[in-house]
C-alpha cells in the first residue's frame, strides 16, 4: 500500500470524521450533549490534524491546530459552551469541510484568516488586553526551556576537572550524562543511549560509578551510573541532545572540546584548554522552571455572560437524550467488485427462474429443493442489495450546513428536524438524490418560510421549522421536506401560470393540479428570482431528476401553515417484485408496489362513459379504467371489461384500474434498463427476462395513468413522458 | 572512580527481525502509515484501534508467547485513551518494563511531561519522519 492509497483512506476518514462531528453538533443543539460529545468532536479534529500533517497539507494542519486548541478548552471545561461559542465552533466546522475538500481536490485552501482570528480570540479568555499579550509571549518564553542547559556554559568555566583521554579530540563534543535514579522505570534503559552515541561514531571514555552504593543498598531498579563520551565534532549538537530527549531527570552536558567557555576566566590555570565537566556531585541539578502559562490562572469561565446553549434550546424532557451512535464497523470494497456481484446475482435469479420453469415443464416443479433454491436465491439477492444500501444519513448530514448558510443569506431563523436518517436505500439513489433534495431544502427556506417579521405577525414562532424525514413505505423510500411556512398561495400560482402562458385563463383546475403547476417548466413564484433558489434551476428540473430515479414527487400544502414535498423512490433500481400479465400476445410486468387488488368485474361493475372511457365501481367509489392495450397500441387484446382482468393500482394521482387479459404469475424480476439497451419508451419503466427466456416489458404505472389524465388545456408534460 | 567500557559490550542495534511492535491508533490511515514505516524498518507489526482492543490483543499475544517488544500508542482514542492504556499496561507486572512510545501532535514540554508521568518511555511527534521514528524506537527498544 503506497502513500497515495493511504492518503485516500485518510480522506475517507476525514469524511467520516466530519459526518461524526455534524451528528454530534446536532446532539449539542438539542441540548443532549455530554462530555463525550465534545470529546468525540475533538477527536475527529485531532485525527484530521494528524493526517494533515502526515500528508503535508499545511493549511489544513494549521487550521485544525487552532480549532483543536479551542475544542480542547471546551472539552476540559475551561470554556463554557454558550451560543456564541457554538456559533464559532460550527462556523469553523464548515470551514474545516472546505479545507478538507481543498486538500483532497488540490484546490485553493479557503481564506481562513478571519475564522482563525475568531478561533484564537475564542480560545483566549476575555480578559484585559495585557493578559492576552502575556499569553502571546508565553511560547517565546517557554522556547528556551529546551536549551536551558546553556546555563551550564557559565559553570563550565568554574570547573577544573581531570580530562581523561580527551587529548586529540579538539573540536569534538564531550558528552557527559548521568541519568536520574528513575531512569530504568517505564521501560527506559540508559545503555540504549550509550548505544545511540556509538552510532553517531561516539566513543565512551569513561563510566562514572561514583554513585554506586554498597551491594546491600543497591536497588536493582535504580540507575546509578554516569558516562562520559566523545562524539565527533561534525555531529550537530541537536542530534546529540535528541538522544537524551526521553530522559526526564538527566544531568547532561555537551561541550566542544577545545572551545573556550563563554567568558574565559583568568584563574584558569589549566594549560590544557580541554574541559571536562562533571556536575553531578558538586552542583545541584539545575532546574529550569517550567514557565507557568498565564492561561492556567485564567478564570474558568469566559467573562461574556452568554446563556448556556441548553437554556436557549431546552431539551424536551419527554424525548430521550440523543447520543450519536458509535461509528459502525466497516470494510471498504471497490464499487466495481460490488456491482459485478450484484450483476451476477441478477443473472443467477434469472437462471434460477428459467430452471424452475424447465423443471415444471417436465412435471418436477414441485420438488422441495427447487423451493429451497428459490429461497436461497432470493435471500442472496436481498443480502447483496443490502451491501449496496446506505443510510440516508450520508445525504442528510450535509443539510445542516445548507440550512446555516441559508439562515445567513435570508436572515431567517430556521430549525432543522431530521427524522429517519438511518433509513437505508441503494447507493445509486443516495448519490443522486442529493441535488434535488438540496433544491427542495433551499426552496423550503427561501420560498416556504416567511420572514421573521411576517411570522410574528401571523402569530407563529419566530423560528421556522424545516423537517426532513425518510421512511420505508411499501417497498419504497419516502423522503419528505416539510416546512411550517406560508404554504402555497394558489391564487398567485394560478395567476402566474396564466401570465406565463402555462395554462389558459379559464382552465378549471383542482387544488392538486394548481399545486403541481410549480413543477411546470419556466415557472417561478418568487417575484424576483433570488440567488438562493433561482439559480437557473426550477422545480421542473427537480421533478425530472426524481423521475430519472424511478421516483415521484408530490405536494401537500395548506395556505398559511406550510407545505410538504414528498419524494417516493424505489429502494433499489435493480430488482422489483412484479405481477406478470398478458395483453394480447404481449407479456408485461406490473410493479407490485402499485397493485392494490385484482378482480374480475361483475356484469354491471364497469360503467361505460364513452368509446374509450369507463369507470369501475370499487365498493362504492368510481375509479377510471385504463385499457393497457389501447394505451400501448396492442392488437388482439380483450375489449370487453367483463371478460378481462382488472387490476386496481395506486398511483401519484390516486387509484386507477389497469385492464389486462390475464394474470400469469407473481415474481421478482431483474430490471434491465431500456434506456441503456434501447431507448426510453413512454409508459414503460424497463424490461426483464422471464424464466422461459422471453423479454417482458415493465409498465410505468404512473406514466400510463397520467397520460390518460392529460388535459389538453394544461401545458404540463405528463409524468414520465418528458419528450 | 572511572572504568573504561568497551563498545563491544553494548546491546546490538535492536535486531528488528525478531522485534514486534504493537501500534494503537483509531485512525486507519495513521495505522497504515506506521505499519508501512515499521515494516520498512524490518519490524513485525501488531495493530489495535483503541486502548481496549490493545489490552485484549496484548493479553492474547503474550499468552501465545509472541508479545510485542514495544508499544506505540496514540493519545486521543475512543473507549480507552492512550494515557488510560499505559496505566493499565503498567499495572501488569510483566509489562512494567515494556517500552511505550506515545504519538503526539504536540511537542510542548507539558505534553511530554504528562506522557512521562503517565508511564510512557518516550514519544513520537506527529507527523513523523521515518528516520525520526527509527531513532525514537532505537532509543527505547531493548
TrEMBL record, chain A:
The modification Phosphohistidine is found at residue 46. CDD domains: CheA_reg, HATPase_CheA-like, HPT. GO terms for cellular component: cytoplasm. Residues 575-710 form the CheW-like domain. InterPro entries: Bact_Chemotaxis_CheA, CheA-like_dim, CheA-like_homodim_sf, CheW-like_dom_sf, CheW-lke_dom, HATPase_C_sf, HATPase_dom, His_kinase_dom. It catalyses: ATP + protein L-histidine = ADP + protein N-phospho-L-histidine. One of its GO terms (biological process) is chemotaxis. Its EC number is 2.7.13.3. Keywords: ATP-binding, Chemotaxis, Kinase, Nucleotide-binding, Phosphoprotein, Transferase, Two-component regulatory system. Residues 367-573 form the Histidine kinase domain. It comes from the Bacteria. Residues 1-103 form the HPt domain. GO terms for molecular function: ATP binding; phosphorelay sensor kinase activity. Gene3D superfamilies: Histidine kinase CheA-like, homodimeric domain (1.10.287.560), Histidine kinase-like ATPase, C-terminal domain (3.30.565.10), HPT domain (1.20.120.160), SH3 Domains (2.30.30.40). Involved in the transmission of sensory signals from the chemoreceptors to the flagellar motors. CheA is autophosphorylated; it can transfer its phosphate group to either CheB or CheY. This is Chemotaxis protein CheA. The lineage of its organism: Bacteria, Pseudomonadati, Pseudomonadota, Alphaproteobacteria, Sphingomonadales.
Amino acid at each position: 500500500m503506497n502513500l497515495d492509497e493511504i492518503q485516500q483512506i485518510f480522506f475517507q476518514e476525514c469524511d467520516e470524521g466530519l459526518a461524526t462531528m455534524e451528528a454530534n453538533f446536532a446532539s449539542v443543539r438539542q441540548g443532549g450533549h455530554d462530555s463525550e460529545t465534545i470529546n468525540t468532536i475533538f477527536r475527529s479534529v485531532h485525527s484530521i490534524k494528524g493526517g494533515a500533517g502526515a500528508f503535508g497539507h499545511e493549511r489544513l494542519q494549521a487550521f485544525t491546530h487552532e480549532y483543536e486548541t479551542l475544542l480542547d478548552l471546551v472539552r476540559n471545561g475551561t470554556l463554557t459552551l454558550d451560543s456564541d461559542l457554538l456559533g464559532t465552533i460550527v462556523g469553523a466546522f464548515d470551514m474545516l469541510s472546505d479545507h478538507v475538500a481543498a486538500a483532497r481536490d488540490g484546490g485553493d485552501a479557503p481564506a481562513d484568516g478571519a475564522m482563525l482570528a475568531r478561533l484564537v480570540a475564542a480560545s483566549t479568555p476575555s480578559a484585559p488586553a495585557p493578559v492576552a499579550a502575556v499569553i502571546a509571549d508565553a511560547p517565546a518564553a517557554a522556547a528556551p526551556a529546551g536549551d536551558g542547559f546553556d546555563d551550564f556554559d557559565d559553570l563550565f568555566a568554574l570547573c577544573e576537572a581531570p580530562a581523561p583521554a580527551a587529548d586529540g579530540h579538539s573540536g569534538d563534543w564531550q558528552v557527559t550524562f548521568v541519568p536520574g535514579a528513575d531512569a530504568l522505570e517505564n521501560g527506559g534503559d540508559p545503555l540504549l543511549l550509550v548505544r545511540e552515541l556509538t552510532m553517531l561514531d561516539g566513543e565512551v571514555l569513561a563510566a562514572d560509578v561514583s554513585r554506586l552504593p554498597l551491594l546491600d543498598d543497591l536497588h536493582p531498579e535504580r540507575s546509578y551510573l554516569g558516562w562520559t563520551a566523545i562524539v565527533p565534532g561534525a555531529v550537530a549538537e541537536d542530534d546529540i541532545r535528541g538522544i537524551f530527549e526521553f530522559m526526564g531527570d538527566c544531568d547532561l552536558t555537551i561541550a566542544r572540546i577545545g572551545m573556550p567557555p563563554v567568558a574565559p576566566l583568568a584563574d584558569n590555570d589549566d594549560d590544557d584548554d580541554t574541559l571536562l565537566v562533571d556536575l553531578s556531585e558538586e552542583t545541584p541539578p539545575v532546574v529550569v522552571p517550567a514557565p507557568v502559562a498565564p492561561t492556567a490562572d485564567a478564570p474558568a469561565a469566559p467573562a461574556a455572560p452568554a446563556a448556556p446553549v441548553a437554556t436557549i434550546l431546552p431539551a424536551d424532557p419527554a424525548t430521550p437524550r440523543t447520543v450519536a451512535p458509535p461509528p459502525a464497523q466497516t470494510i471498504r470494497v471497490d464499487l466495481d467488485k460490488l456491482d459485478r456481484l450484484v450483476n451476477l446475482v441478477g443473472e443467477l435469479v434469472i437462471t434460477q427462474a428459467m430452471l424452475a420453469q424447465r423443471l415444471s415443464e417436465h412435471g418436477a416443479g414441485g420438488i422441495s429443493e427447487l423451493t429451497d433454491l428459490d429461497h436461497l436465491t432470493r435471500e442472496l439477492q436481498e443480502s447483496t442489495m443490502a451491501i449496496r444500501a446506505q443510510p440516508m444519513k450520508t445525504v442528510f448530514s450535509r443539510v445542516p450546513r445548507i440550512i446555516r448558510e441559508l439562515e445567513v443569506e435570508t436572515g431567517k431563523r430556521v430549525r432543522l428536524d431530521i427524522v429517519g436518517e438511518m433509513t437505508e436505500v441503494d447507493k445509486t439513489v443516495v448519490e443522486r438524490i442529493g441535488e434535488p433534495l438540496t433544491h427542495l431544502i433551499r426552496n423550503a427556506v427561501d420560498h416556504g418560510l416567511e420572514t421573521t417579521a411576517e411570522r410574528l405577525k401571523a402569530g407563529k414562532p419566530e423560528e421556522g421549522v424545516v423537517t426532513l424525514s425518510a421512511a420505508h413505505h411499501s417497498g419504497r423510500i419516502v423522503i419528505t421536506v416539510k416546512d411550517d411556512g406560508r404554504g402555497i398561495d394558489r391564487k398567485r400560482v394560478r395567476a402566474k401560470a396564466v401570465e406565463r402562458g402555462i395554462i389558459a385563463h379559464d382552465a378549471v383546475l383542482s387544488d392538486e393540479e394548481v399545486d403541481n403547476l410549480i413543477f411546470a417548466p419556466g415557472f417561478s413564484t418568487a417575484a424576483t428570482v433570488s440567488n438562493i433558489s433561482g439559480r437557473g434551476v426550477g422545480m421542473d428540473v427537480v421533478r425530472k431528476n426524481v423521475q430519472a430515479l424511478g421516483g415521484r414527487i408530490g405536494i401537500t400544502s395548506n395556505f398559511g401553515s406550510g407545505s410538504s414535498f414528498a419524494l417516493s423512490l424505489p429502494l433499489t433500481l435493480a430488482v422489483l417484485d412484479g405481477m406478470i400479465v398478458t395483453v394480447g400476445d404481449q407479456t408485461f410486468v406490473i410493479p407490485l408496489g402499485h397493485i392494490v387488488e385484482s378482480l374480475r368485474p361483475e356484469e354491471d361493475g364497469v360503467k361505460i362513459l364513452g368509446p374509450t372511457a369507463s369507470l369501475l365501481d370499487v365498493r362504492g367509489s368510481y375509479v377510471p379504467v385504463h385499457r393497457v392495450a389501447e394505451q400501448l397500441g396492442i392488437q388482439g387484446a380483450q375489449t370487453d371489461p367483463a371478460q378481462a382482468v382488472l387490476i386496481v393500482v395506486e398511483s401519484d394521482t390516486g387509484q386507477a384500474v389497469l385492464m389486462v387479459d390475464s394474470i400469469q404469475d407473481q415474481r421478482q424480476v431483474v430490471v434491465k434498463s431500456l434506456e441503456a439497451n434501447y431507448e426510453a419508451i413512454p409508459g414503460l419503466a424497463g424490461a426483464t427476462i422471464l424464466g422461459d427466456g422471453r423479454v417482458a416489458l415493465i409498465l410505468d404505472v404512473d406514466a400510463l395513468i397520467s397520460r390518460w389524465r392529460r388535459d389538453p388545456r394544461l401545458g404540463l408534460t405528463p409524468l414520465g413522458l418528458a419528450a | 572512580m572511572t572504568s573504561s567500557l568497551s563498545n563491544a559490550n553494548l546491546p546490538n542495534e535492536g535486531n528488528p527481525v525478531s522485534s514486534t511492535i504493537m501500534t494503537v491508533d483509531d485512525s486507519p490511515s495513521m495505522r497504515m502509515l506506521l505499519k508501512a514505516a515499521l515494516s520498512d524498518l524490518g519490524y513485525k507489526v501488531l495493530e489495535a484501534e483503541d486502548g481496549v482492543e490493545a489490552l485484549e490483543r496484548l493479553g492474547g499475544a503474550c499468552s501465545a508467547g509472541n508479545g510485542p517488544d514495544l508499544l506505540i500508542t496514540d493519545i486521543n482514542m475512543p473507549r480507552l485513551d492512550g494515557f488510560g492504556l499505559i496505566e493499565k499496561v503498567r499495572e501488569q507486572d510483566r509489562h512494567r518494563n515494556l517500552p511505550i512510545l506515545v504519538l503526539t501532535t504536540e511537542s510542548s514540554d507539558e505534553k511530554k511531561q504528562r506522557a512521562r508521568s503517565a508511564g510512557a518511555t518516550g514519544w513520537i511527534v506527529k507527523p513523523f519522519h521515518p528516520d525520526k521514528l527509527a531513532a525514537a524506537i532505537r532509543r527505547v527498544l531493548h
